[in-house]
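JOB MANIFEST
job_type = single_chain_structure
chain_count = 1
residues = 308
[input]
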Amino acid sequence: MAKHNRTIAQDLLMELIMSKDNDHSRNSYILNIAIDVAKGAHKIESVDDSANEKNDDEISVMDELERYVFSMRTIDRSVSSKLALIYSYLDRIEPNLLDKGEIKNYIFFCKRSYPVWDVLEQESKNNILIAEYFFSSLQKQEKKDFILVVLELSRAIENELNVKVFNKYIDELVKREKKIDDFLAKDKLDIGLVAYTKDLVIQVEKSAFFKVRPTMTLEQMSLVLSYLNDSKIVKRSRLLQDFNYYLNKHSLDKCLLSHSFIDELTKLSHKYCVGSSFPITIKFAEAKGVIDSFPKKFDFIMKCYGSA
């Protein structure tokens, strides 16, 4: 379009130069048209350049992310360390991504796609927005690896369970039990229990003694929920008995302790977040299946919590 306008302007100027007509008003008229057309071509070129710069910027961000994920595949570290490093990297770049005008276009889309959007935590919303942005942007890449899409969605689920379930329980427990050491004694001293309750014990102590916001991984939470379905383990653990009572009191037990829900969490965590070959490469079709299924997962969690 810009090139076409520039050609027209050049033709008009050439006509003016070659013309032997001394009609000044006509010549002035043609000159003004040529100038206007040339300005239009310049504006179009400016818009094109701006769009190209934005596109190049978007591609460079995705290239950088792709290189970082690839580096995680080649370093000799534990899976949990790799996941923590990727999450830390995402935490660092996410504020800049969320400031992009383009990513804000996904807010209306997410509101329509996620029926429970308005009751999700802001951090979870940010994770979903970035996942949707990555899903679109990665399709423009030569090498299409969608692992970051699934990781961002996993973080959103992780955050919702932390904030709405585990953190609320731990807050209530810490306020209720003034001697938290005594309360946790059996779970800390019984060697047979430590493997089942260690992660939850650590989060309770972080909150009670250091006033640190409890944060459990998706794997840790799915394991704790699965242990609550084992009566032999629960019978020995004061902490798990108390947590089980809390879920029952708030009518959360039937939903969150259902085998289908725990199986979904476990599958999500083991396949994408803690597998031995982490981070795995995810193709478009698989990523699309995951991203299409997530609104129902959030809907299920909110319905569980809404029944309390």
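[summary]
Residues 1-52 form one domain.
The chain has two domains: 1-52, 75-308.
exit_status = 0
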